[in-house]
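User: I want to check something. If I give you two sequences, will you return the structure for each one separately, not as a complex?

Assistant: Yes, each is folded on its own. Here is the first sequence with its structure:
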Amino acid sequence: MSTALQVTAFGLALLSALFLLLATCTDCWMVNADDSLEVSHKCRGLWRECVTNMQDGVRTCDQYDSILADHPVKIVVTRTLMITADVLAGLALATLVLGLDCITFLKEDPCVKLKMCYGAGVMLCAGSILGLIGSVWYAVDVYVERAMLVSHNIFLGVHYDFGWSCWLGMAGSMGCFVASVLLTCCLY
């Protein structure tokens, strides 16, 4: 049963880490349409902003000036938290692979392998918390930005939604958290 639980946790952690990595690299954290006719579809991400013309499907992207340039706090904090979550999830996956019972590494010392699985679970938990904070931080800031425009009657037909990258970051964080629970609580 321990091996099945480890393999299940590994599969979930791998899929969730890929979700986190995709969320960090993609550019659709916030979606807005500039007009009611939906002539264009604009996605704003952590690294660039892209506009897709709905009539002909042409997509153009503008890179942000520089990583070191002044950016809004939500972008800087989300970048930092998501990159840290990606690194922790990657380290946890490497540790978990070495700690799996079906891998012959350290086969003569099962106690060390169990501690490696437990350590991978702790790293996944830390990465999931950071990823969830980053995703929710960005989503809340998008909501506040929208509410400020509406409350000041500056609503210019702009409609804000959370992009699929934001949802992917939340899903990846929750998957890493479930995998960490499997490794830390259920393994013993």
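And separately, the second sequence with its own structure:
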Amino acid sequence: TGVISSLQRQLEIQESQLRRIKSEKEMLQKQLTERENQLQAMSTKFCSLREEWKHEEMMMTIEKENCSLQQVVTEQESKLAEQNKLISELQGTVSQLQAEVLTRRYHIHKQHQAQEAIQSQAETLQHRELQTRVALECITSRFERYRSKIIQATFSAAGSKPPQAEVTDEEVLEAMQKIINERMEFHQMLKQKGVK
């Protein structure tokens, strides 16, 4: 945005300079036209005087004025050509700056779109993370309840001693395996005695 503001200020300066030079060009064109009119008037006057009086000094004065006016016209035309060249250069610079401003705006627009897309993805990920956390807490709570019931069922069996401290998963598995083995041995003993 700072670069665009800088370019726009530079563009305004160039356009202002272009308007000033165009104004100077119009003024020079006007002066040139006036000088040409004066030259034409002097030429007419010269012809008239030469025909009427044939006065040599007057003719020399008019010729000097004519030469002077021609020199002024030549200088004005040279200045006008320089002004036209400068105007062309400034118009090229203005067009280039306008294109650069448009390019910068396009890039900024693309960056805004990318930023909005990333922001949307971040919000979606945050929402999914929250959902996952809630689901994980629910699963953890169910697992703890299920584990508590398994421990309670395992250590409440006949012959089992209730745990004095927190029980590890390995200890629970060993106690369950012991109950299962004892049950299988009891079942085998009943089977051997013929009890269904």
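Because they were folded independently, the notes below concern the second chain alone. Residues 125-193 form one domain. The chain has a mean pLDDT of 86.
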